[in-house]
Amino acid sequence: MLKYLIPLFIFVVMAIFLALGLKLKPSEIPSPLIGKPVPAFSAPKLDDPSQNLSPADLKGQVWLFNVWASWCVSCREEHEVLTQFSGQKAVTIIGLNYKDDPAAAKNWLQSLGNPYNVSIMDQDGRIGIDWGVYGVPETFVVDKQGIVRYKHTGPVNAEQIQNLFLPMIAKLQAEA
Amino acid sequence: MLKILSLGVLLMLPCLAGAVDAHQMATPELQKTYESINSELRCLVCQNQTIADSNAELAGDLRRQVGEMLEQGKSKQDIIDFMTERYGDFVLYKPPFKGKTTLLWLAPGLFLVMGVVTVFFVVRRRKSLSTAVIINSEQQKKISGLLDEGDGS
Fold first, then answer.
1. Which of A131, B77, B90, B132 has the fewest CB atoms inside 10 Å of its own CB, making it the most exposed?
2. Which among B58, B86, B88 has CB closest to A130?
């Protein structure tokens, strides 16, 4: 009896581990920023480089920090979703125009629509490094106290907006 | 002749591609530290490469960051801390030994022990299974004969 049970047991254990392995996404690296204050920055705005934006300007509001670039193919896919979402005015959306040519970036927003309240420029990618950006697009959710609460890597789709971002934003808006 | 020459030049081109844009540090010691840090940090984009090996744009930016921090007089540990604060332990090619990574570090030893124990039991069982067979001299002769025959072929 034991002779048959042992292989069965080994099979079950392996099956469980392999099933868990299937669900892992090795390309999604957990961010150590979650639960920590947003990295400090002060960066020129895309539409008016003479003005800077820093996290202090956003204190007291919940905001999304979306990393995008005109050269990024999957940003285009996400852009439509974001533009629709921004129409709901549920939350402030700040764009980080990552390692992009300002002219190309402006062009992109003009032809495809602008979901961002403000976009700031990070031409040499330094702000990106501070936020641990490794794959564009990335989206962070920041609460009223300026604490990073969530990070999403890759394009956000409409379903995730509906089922994940909206409930989270509502919850964070309700916080003091 | 010209064809062979140009082929030779073409074949040598990949050597150039292998050298990623290395930052030149002021002193040989700094250069050594710079290279050793780069070979310990993972490129987040192409996850099986270090930033020293990778041509990805992010790897280039991270190398620049390492170079600048060294020039500012930061230590190797400062730079490693800077990177893990932003990208997590994942950025380290050699993960640190701590609660979460205990299994990762101990598993190879664990599997070795399991293997040794299994072999031990299998061998012991085999031994007890093989029972002595008693044969008489007639049979012994036959066996020797057969064995000799085998040698002859």
1. B132
2. B86
Is A24 contained in some domain? no
User: Å from B66 to nearest chain A CA?
Assistant: 12
- The distance in angstroms from the start CA to the end CA of chain A is 62
What DSSP letter does each residue of A37-56 carry, written as one string? Answer: BPPP--EEBSS-TTSEE-GG
Residues of A whose CB is below 8 A from B69: none
pLDDT band at B19 (very low <50, low <70, confident <90, very high): very low
The interface residues of chain A toward chain B in range 90-129, judged by CB-CB distance below 8 A, are 99, 124-126, 128-129
Count of structural domains within chain A: 1
Instruction: For residue B82, give the chain A residue with the closest CA.
Output: A130
**Contact A140/A39 with Cβ under 8 angstroms?**
no
Q: What is the CATH number of the domain that holds A149?
A: 3.40.30.10
Class of domain B19-96: mainly alpha
A144 touches A172 (CB < 8 A): yes
Q: How many CB pairs under 8 A join A and B?
A: 39
The predicted-structure confidence for A94-138, as pLDDT tens digits, reads as follows 999 999 999 999 999 999 999 999 999 999 999 999 999 998 899
| Residue A132: inside a domain | yes
Q: Does A130 touch chain B (CB under 8 A)?
A: yes
Question: pLDDT of A86-100, one tens digit each?
Answer: 998 889 999 999 999
Q: Note whether A33 contacts B: Cβ–Cβ < 8 A.
A: yes
Boundaries of every domain in chain B: 19-96, 100-152
Judged against a pLDDT cut of 90, whether residue A52 lies above it is answered with yes
Handedness of CA A72, A77, A78, A83 (dihedral sign): positive
Is the confidence at residue B131, as pLDDT, over 70? no
Residue-number span of the structural domain to which A90 is assigned: 34-174
Question: CB neighbours of A98 closer than 8 A, spacing ≥ 6?
Answer: A67, A68, A69, A72, A122, A125, A127, A128, A133, A136
Residue A74 lies in a domain: yes
Query: Which residues in chain B have their CB less than 8 angstroms from residue A130's CB?
Result: 86
